[in-house]
Structure prediction request, 119 residues.
Amino acid sequence: MDKRALFDKLYRAESRISSVSEDLREIQENLAQLMEENTNLQIENQHLRDRVDYLNKQIEQEALASEPEMSKSRLNLQKLYEDGFHVCNVYYGSRRVNDESCVFCLDVIYGERGNHLDG
Prediction:
């Protein structure tokens, strides 16, 4: 092999190595940008989750504060109803079959708060 052919091969190899090196540098820069963007998005995501949790807690607290408290007698009726018994004047004391809902019972427990049961 003559010197010229050897130098040509060396030049082509150097050119390919240089090209691969540039590609690697570009990939490395892109990877660094993506990692930085990913970190920023993770931080922002966590801040948003924290904000949603905070707002949900506020909503729950406001809902609890706005609900009028039930009297002891209504709480007792609610407990009996949850245990599977009717508390309405139509079926009072009988078992609710398959825990079916009873409109009459629900009205007695959760109906207007100003009737004779409160107190």
Residues 68-119 form one domain. Helices lie at 3-66, 72-82, 103-110. The chain has two domains: 1-66, 68-119. The mean pLDDT is 88.
